[in-house]
Design a protein that fits this description.
Largest sheet: 2 strands, antiparallel
Keywords: Cell membrane, Disulfide bond, G-protein coupled receptor, Glycoprotein, Lipoprotein, Membrane, Palmitate, Receptor, Transducer, Transmembrane, Transmembrane helix
Order of helices and strands: HHHHHHHEEHHHHHH
Helix content: 55-70%
Strand content: under 5%
Pfam family, one: 7tm_1
CATH superfamily: Rhodopsin 7-helix transmembrane proteins
Strand order of the largest sheet: 1-2
Radius of gyration: 23 Å
Shape: globular
Subcellular location: Cell membrane
GO molecular function, one term: neuropeptide Y receptor activity
Distance between the termini: 55 Å
Number of helices: 13
Number of domains: 1
Family: Belongs to the G-protein coupled receptor 1 family.
CATH class: Mainly Alpha
Length: about 350
């Protein structure tokens, strides 16, 4: 690919049209004169991305291990939460490290295979998070608002999770299909590798896909979650007198799940809004410090991958107790008294930090 071809590619397939949830800061940013090349700014960016990666990997791994370790946390809702944690781990490991390197060096140094694989994996992971949040909201709406006592079985939960990943892979597949990897010579001694979109016919197809993903990933999920949780909240408020303890527990759990949705939306909306502005008006690309602004919004979006475990520990006693048990190997306080028969039966099983008991989430 020569320089003229690259310039044409930049005009026809600007990187930030790479649909709204592609985590990687795209190529061609090297052409912009921006403040992200200042040493002080780069130090801040390195610390920001490194912090998100550290908290994301640690927190989400802790969530997965806690549900695996303690049987009473193995509920359908918690299995969906584990699915969220797996998707966030995928972003933390496959998105952020590569994004940071690309941001600092402005050169795709990861080869052709990863050029096609990484954007696809990143898009799929964010779709999984969005769909899973919707499923949790609809499942709670079904059981609380419509009083359906029959809970979703674990087998059905597994089927739903598999379908979620399959649908997410389908929605993200254009990121791998309509892509091009190439290189050109900046000078006789320096070659730049690029990984860019290549939509058929014109870049309008890319804009259509980008707008479609905005609707699928943000607009529709926010509508579904808003309606579901508003109806759940109103239902619980009307039935606080009868079955007070059970309704209090449900209300706390619903509050936690609703907070997760709000945090997810607040984290991603600035990124999506900025992306939409680019699609509508290309003059946004000429704004001062465009790359820095885009990177800040990207960091905000990525914060959603590490904040959920913090919410679990802060807003849910069961998770908080489980986290303390895992981290400190410490028998949690405030556990319910069991019958002497059960205590004798489970006495040996409760060693080595496995004495955690909790009510279901």
């Amino acid at each position: 690919m020569n320089e003229d071809e690259l310039n044409m590619t930049q005009k026809e397939h600007f990187p930030f049209e790479d649909e709204h949830f592609d985590c990687c800061i795209e190529e061609n940013l090297w052409t912009l004169n921006d403040s992200t090349k200042l040493v002080g700014v780069q130090v801040v960016l390195i610390l920001s991305y490194s912090t998100i990666i550290l908290f994301g990997v640690t927190g989400n791994s802790l969530v997965i291990y806690a549900v695996y370790k303690f049987k009473n946390l193995r509920t359908v809702t918690n299995f969906f939460i584990v699915n969220l944690a797996v998707a966030d781990l995928l972003v933390n490991t496959l998105c952020l490290p590569f994004t940071l390197v690309y941001l600092l060096y402005d050169d795709w140094m990861f080869g052709q295979v990863l050029c096609f694989l990484l954007p696809f994996a990143q898009g799929m992971a964010v779709h999984v998070s969005t769909i899973t949040l919707n499923i949790i909201a609809l499942d709670r709406h079904r059981s609380i608002v419509h009083h359906m006592e029959t809970k979703m079985s674990r087998d059905m939960c597994a089927v739903v999770i598999v379908i979620t990943w399959a649908l997410s892979a389908l929605l993200a597949s254009p990121l791998a299909i309509f892509r091009e990897f190439g290189s050109f010579n900046i000078s006789t001694e320096e070659t730049l590798q690029v990984c860019t979109e290549k939509w058929p016919e014109s870049s309008m197809n890319g804009k259509i896909y980008s707008f479609s993903m905005l609707v699928v990933q943000v607009v529709i999920p926010l509508l579904i979650n808003s309606v579901a949780y508003i109806r759940i909240w109103n239902k619980l408020k009307k039935h606080m007198i009868c079955g007070r303890n059970d309704n209090q527990r449900r209300k706390k759990t619903t509050k936690m799940m609703l907070t997760m949705v709000v945090v997810f939306a607040v984290s991603w909306l600035p990124f999506h809004a900025f992306q939409l502005a680019i699609d509508i008006d290309n003059s946004v690309l000429n704004m001062k410090d465009f790359k820095l602004v885009f990177t800040v919004f990207h960091i905000m979006a990525m914060c959603s991958t590490c904040v959920n475990p913090i919410l679990y520990g802060w807003m849910n006693n069961n998770y908080r107790t489980a986290f303390l048990s895992v981290v400190k190997c410490y028998p949690p306080l405030g556990v319910r008294y069991r019958s002497s028969k059960n205590r004798e039966k489970e006495k040996d099983d409760d060693r080595d930090c496995t004495d955690f008991r909790s009510t279901n989430l």
